[in-house]
Specification:
The complex is a heterodimer. By secondary structure, chain A is an alpha/beta fold. Helix content of chain A is 36%, strand content 17%. Chain A has 16 helices and 20 strands. In chain A, helix 13 (436-451) packs antiparallel against helix 14. Chain A starts with a strand and ends in an 8-residue tail after the last helix. The mean pLDDT of chain A is 95. By secondary structure, chain B is an alpha+beta fold. Chain B has two domains: 9-112, Beta-grasp domain (Ubiquitin-like (UB roll)), CATH 3.10.20.30; 115-244, Fumarate Reductase Iron-sulfur Protein, Chain B, domain 2 (Orthogonal Bundle), CATH 1.10.1060.10. In chain B, 32% of the residues lie in helices and 12% in strands. In chain B, a hairpin with a 2-residue loop joins strand 6 (106-108) and strand 7 (111-112). The chains are: A alpha/beta, B alpha+beta. Chains A and B meet through helix 3, helix 4, helix 10 and helix 15 of A and helix 1, helix 2 and helix 3 of B.
Chain lengths: 571, 247
C-alpha cells in the first residue's frame, strides 16, 4: 500500500472536479491539492459530452426569477430552493469566468453578441452553447487551466472508500486504487470532495460515459452520508439506437425536438398527441421519455424497441448548420437525418438525486463535500436541459472554495489505522480472473432498466429488490483476484458493487413515493399528489441497514401557490 | 469528427480477425476471431467483445464512445484512429492489426501513458492567460471577423494524442511540445482575450522550424477532429518571421 498526504483530495475528473480544483488552487495557493480521476482527467465523465448548452440569465429581458421558476416547475416543485437559487444566481459568474479567464468561446450572433436559445421547459431563450458539442469547448479549456496550475493529477486512479479520523465521525481521506499498478493508495487529507458523476450506467441503455458507476455515491453511502431524491433519475427521450454497439443509447440533443422534430411510433403516428397535445415533442424530458416508453410497451415500437425521431422536414441545410455533430453521428451509423427516420430510445441520462448538500457543498458528514451529479437537490424531480453543466460549474467552483476554507481551518488529521486496515483487507485475494463480473453487471443493468426505470410499480420494485440480493450474493461469492493491476475484471466487479448500492437507494425511495412526479412514474400511482411535496432522505446506519425518512419541501423562497401552472415553452 | 464513409453492409453477421499488439501481456493471446454484430460496429465494439467473451484482462481505454473525449486513440492497420469512430466495415483487410499509440510509453496492452503528451501542453503553457479576468460581461465577438474565423478553423482538438503518435519517428527535441500544443498556442496568439500574445512564439520557434511538412501532413491526416495542422505550422512560421522582423 502507498500513502499520500495532502490538504485537499478531489475524487473525480469531469467538469465539477476540475472547476473545484482550479478554484481551490486559486483560493489557497499554499495547499496541496490532489485530484484522482477514474479515467484520464477531463476525458472521463460527462461534462465533455454536453451538447445542448448552459442555462444562464444574460439578456436584460430575462431574469433570475424567470430562470428560477422554470427550474422549480421543471423539478415538479421539490427542488431544494436554496440550491436552485444558488444555481441560477451564480450561473452568470461562471460564464464570465469561462469566457474571460479560461478562453471558452460560445456561439455568437452575427453582431458578436452571445447567442442564446431555449431548451424544453424554459420561458426564455437562455441556453448558451457551442454548436451541438458544447462540452468539448468547456472541458478543453478547463483542463488546460488545470494543467498550468500546480495540481497533482492522478489518472486512472479510482476511489474505493472514504476514511475517517479516530473519532469515526470526520472524513479525513480516502482509499484509492491505481488501476494500472494495482496499488492501494491511502490518501490523508483535510477534506474530500466527491465529484465522480452519477450512476446512469446502472441502466442497460445510457448515453453516460460507461466508466461511471456511482463511485462517489457508493462511497458516501457506505460512509453514512445523507442522500436526497434518489428515486429521481432522468431519462433522455432520444438516445440513438445502434444494436450490438457500445454507441447504443448515446444522446441526440434536445435542440432537434426544439427546432420542430417529430416523434413517431412504428405506425408513423405522432404519439405525443396522446400524452401532451399542447406541447407535443417540446414537452419536458420526463414526459417525452415516458410517452416513448409507453408506446414501446404497448407494442407500437420498432423492432429494436424504439421509436422514430423525424427531422426530415427541417431540411438538410438547417440540420447541417444547427446540429452538425448529430448529423455526423447519425451518418456514421448509416442514417442520413435529412432523408431517413432516426430510430431512438429513451436512455438513462442524469441522476437528480445524490448526496444531500448545503449551498456551500458541505454534506451531512464533517470533512466530506460533494458537487455535480454526486450531489442531490438542485433539480428536484426533473432537470431542465442546460441546467446540468451549469450545476457542475457553479457548484464545482463553490466546492473548491469551501473545501479550501475547511482545509485551512482544520489542517491534516491522521487516518484511523484500524478502519484503513479493514478497507484494505478485502483486496488481499488469491482468486483467478473469471470474467463473471461483466455478466453480473450486464444482468444488473437489465434488471434496473426493466423495473427501476421509466415505468415503475410496486410489483416490479419488489422484484428488483430480490434481484439485487441475488446479484449481490453472486458478487460476494467471487474470490478477490490475485492480480489487481491491469485487470478490467476487477474494475467491473467494483463498478457492479457500487451500482448495486445506488440501485438499492433508488429502489427504496421509489417504493416510498406512492405518486408520480417528474421523472418518477408509478403505474400504480399515476397521479401527482400534494401529500408528496416531500423529499426522501436516506442513509446507511452503522449496522448496515438503509434508513429512509421524509422531510417536507421547504418553500423558503417561493410559496407553493405561486408555482402552480405550467411552464411556457417558447415556439 | 471524421466523415465516416458508408460501411460495408455485408460484414454484419460475419467475423473479422483482430491482431492485437500486447507488449506486456506476458504471452496473452493476441489473435481473436470476432463476430461483427452490426454493420456499424466499431473497432471499439470488437475490443469490448474480446473483453467480455474471451479475455477480461485486455487493456484498452475508452470513455465517451462518441468521438468527443479522445480516450480511445489507437493505431489500426498502421494508422492512428479513434476506436469508437472507426467502423469495422470501412477497413478493407480481413485482419485488423491494432496497436497502442506510438511514441508514448505503453502501460497495459493498448493503453499508453498520456502524461508525456499532457506535459507538452503544460510546458507550452497552452492555456489562456487572461487579459481581463475580472470582466463581468461577455466580449462582443462577431463570428465573421478575421480573428474569429482564423481561430475557429483551428478549434476542436480533443487531445487524443493521434498527432503525436503519427510523428513519433521524427527526430524532435525532447522539449518539443507537439502538434496539439502548437495548434493551441496559435489560437492563443491570435486571441484578443489572451495577454501573453506574441511572447508565446519565442519558446516554439525551433520546433516550428524543425517539424517537416511531411510530418505535419501525416499528423493532420490522422486528426479525428480534422484540424488543419499543416496550416497551423504555416501560420506559426509566418507569425514567427513577422515577429523576428519586429512586425
Amino acid at each position: 500500500m502507498q500513502s499520500l498526504s495532502c490538504d485537499i483530495l478531489i475524487v473525480g475528473g469531469g467538469g465539477a472536479a476540475l472547476f473545484a480544483a482550479i478554484h481551490a488552487r486559486d483560493a489557497a495557493p499554499d495547499l496541496d491539492i490532489v485530484v484522482a480521476s477514474k479515467g484520464l482527467f477531463g476525458k472521463s465523465g460527462c461534462t465533455r459530452m454536453v451538447q445542448g448548452g448552459y442555462n444562464v440569465v444574460l439578456h436584460p429581458e430575462d431574469s433570475f426569477d424567470k430562470h428560477y421558476d422554470d427550474t422549480l416547475r421543471g423539478g415538479s416543485l421539490i427542488n431544494n430552493q436554496e440550491l436552485a437559487w444558488t444555481l441560477v444566481t451564480q450561473a452568470p459568474e461562471r460564464v464570465f469566468e469561462m469566457e474571460n479567464s479560461f478562453g471558452c468561446t460560445f456561439d455568437r450572433n452575427a453582431d458578436g453578441t452571445i447567442h442564446q436559445r431555449a431548451l424544453a421547459g424554459q420561458s426564455f431563450d437562455r441556453t448558451i452553447h457551442r454548436g451541438d458539442l458544447t462540452g468539448i469547448e468547456i472541458i478543453s479549456r478547463l483542463s488546460e487551466q488545470v494543467l498550468v496550475r500546480d495540481i497533482e493529477m492522478l489518472n486512472e486512479v479510482r476511489g474505493i472508500e472514504l476514511l475517517f479520523d479516530s473519532s469515526g465521525k470526520t472524513v479525513v481521506g480516502a482509499l484509492l486504487l491505481d488501476q494500472h499498478s494495482g496499488d492501494l493508495v491511502a490518501v490523508e487529507s483535510s477534506a474530500v470532495l466527491l465529484a465522480t458523476g452519477g450512476a446512469a450506467p446502472l441502466y442497460r441503455i445510457t448515453p453516460a460515459s460507461l466508466e461511471k458507476s456511482g463511485d462517489g455515491l457508493a462511497m458516501a453511502y457506505r460512509a453514512g452520508a445523507e442522500f436526497v431524491d434518489m428515486e429521481m433519475m432522468q431519462f433522455h427521450p432520444t438516445g440513438l439506437i445502434v444494436d450490438g454497439s457500445l454507441l447504443n443509447g448515446t444522446v441526440l440533443e434536445e435542440g432537434l425536438r426544439g427546432a420542430g422534430g417529430h416523434l413517431l411510433n412504428a405506425d408513423h403516428e405522432r404519439y405525443m398527441e396522446r400524452y401532451d397535445p399542447e406541447k407535443m415533442e417540446r414537452s419536458t424530458r420526463d414526459r417525452v421519455s415516458r410517452s416513448g416508453m409507453m408506446e414501446i410497451r404497448a407494442g407500437r415500437g420498432t423492432a429494436s424497441q424504439g421509436v422514430y425521431l423525424d427531422v426530415r422536414h427541417l431540411g438538410k441545410d438547417f440540420l447541417l448548420k444547427s446540429s452538425p455533430g448529430m448529423y455526423e453521428r447519425c451518418l456514421s451509423v448509416g442514417t442520413d437525418m435529412a432523408t431517413d427516420l432516426i430510430e431512438v430510445t429513451p436512455t438513462a441520462h442524469f441522476q437528480m438525486g445524490g448526496v444531500r448538500i448545503e449551498s456551500d457543498c458541505r454534506t451531512s458528514l464533517s470533512g466530506l463535500f460533494a458537487a455535480g451529479e454526486d450531489a442531490g437537490g438542485v433539480h428536484g424531480a426533473n432537470r431542465l436541459g442546460g441546467n446540468g453543466v451549469a450545476e457542475s460549474m457553479v457548484f464545482g467552483a463553490i466546492a473548491g472554495e469551501s473545501i479550501a476554507r475547511h482545509a485551512k481551518e482544520t489542517g491534516r488529521v491522521a487516518i484511523d489505522s484500524e478502519r484503513l486496515s479493514v478497507a484494505c483487507a478485502r483486496f488481499e485475494g488469491a482468486g483467478e480472473i473469471t470474467g463473471t463480473p461483466f455478466q453480473l453487471k450486464n444482468r444488473l443493468r437489465a434488471l434496473a432498466w426493466d423495473d427501476l426505470g421509466i415505468l415503475r410499480n410496486a410489483e416490479g420494485l419488489a422484484r428488483t429488490a430480490t434481484g439485487l440480493n441475488t446479484i449481490e450474493e453472486e458478487l460476494n461469492a467471487l474470490p478477490m483476484p490475485r492480480q489487481r493491476g491491469g485487470n478490467p475484471d476487477l474494475q467491473e466487479r467494483l463498478d457492479a458493487e457500487n451500482l448495486l448500492d445506488v440501485a438499492r437507494l433508488i429502489g427504496a425511495a421509489a417504493i416510498l413515493r406512492e405518486e408520480s412526479r417528474g421523472s418518477h412514474f408509478r403505474e400504480d400511482f399515476p397521479d401527482t399528489d400534494d401529500r408528496f411535496l416531500i423529499n426522501f432522505i436516506q442513509r446507511r446506519d452503522p449496522d448496515g441497514t438503509l434508513k429512509s425518512e421524509s422531510r417536507p419541501v421547504e418553500f423558503s423562497r417561493r410559496a407553493l401557490e405561486t408555482l402552480r401552472g405550467e411552464t411556457l415553452i417558447p415556439v | 469528427m471524421t466523415g465516416t464513409p458508408s460501411p460495408n453492409n455485408t460484414i454484419a453477421g460475419g467475423t473479422v480477425t483482430l491482431e492485437i499488439a500486447r507488449g506486456d501481456s506476458g504471452g496473452g493471446k493476441t489473435r481473436f476471431e470476432i463476430p461483427v454484430l452490426s454493420a456499424h460496429a466499431r473497432v471499439l465494439d470488437a475490443l469490448n467483445w474480446i473483453r467480455e467473451h474471451e479475455d477480461p484482462t485486455l487493456g484498452f481505454r475508452y470513455a465517451c464512445r462518441v468521438g468527443m473525449c479522445g480516450s480511445c486513440a489507437i493505431v489500426v492497420n498502421g494508422k492512428e484512429a479513434l476506436a469508437c469512430q472507426m467502423t469495422i466495415g470501412e477497413i478493407e483487410d480481413t485482419t485488423i492489426r491494432v496497436e497502442p499509440l506510438r511514441g508514448l510509453p505503453v502501460q497495459h496492452d493498448l493503453i499508453v501513458d498520456m502524461r508525456p503528451f499532457f506535459a507538452g501542453l503544460a510546458r507550452a503553457e497552452a492555456a489562456l492567460r487572461p487579459r481581463d479576468p475580472g470582466r463581468r460581461d461577455l466580449s462582443v465577438m462577431p463570428p465573421a471577423s478575421n480573428e474569429r474565423t482564423t481561430i475557429e478553423a483551428q478549434n476542436g482538438c480533443i487531445t487524443c494524442g493521434a498527432c503525436t503518435s503519427a510523428i513519433a519517428d521524427e527526430a524532435l527535441d525532447e522539449n518539443a511540445v507537439g502538434p496539439a500544443a502548437l495548434n493551441r498556442l496559435l489560437m492563443l496568439v491570435l486571441e484578443e482575450r489572451d495577454s501573453a500574445g506574441n511572447a508565446r512564439l519565442a519558446g516554439i520557434a525551433a520546433e516550428v522550424q524543425t517539424l517537416s511538412t511531411d510530418a505535419i501532413a501525416r499528423a493532420e491526416s490522422v486528426c479525428p477532429a480534422n484540424i488543419p495542422l499543416a496550416s497551423t505550422l504555416e501560420q506559426l512560421k509566418s507569425l514567427i518571421a513577422d515577429h523576428d522582423r519586429g512586425g
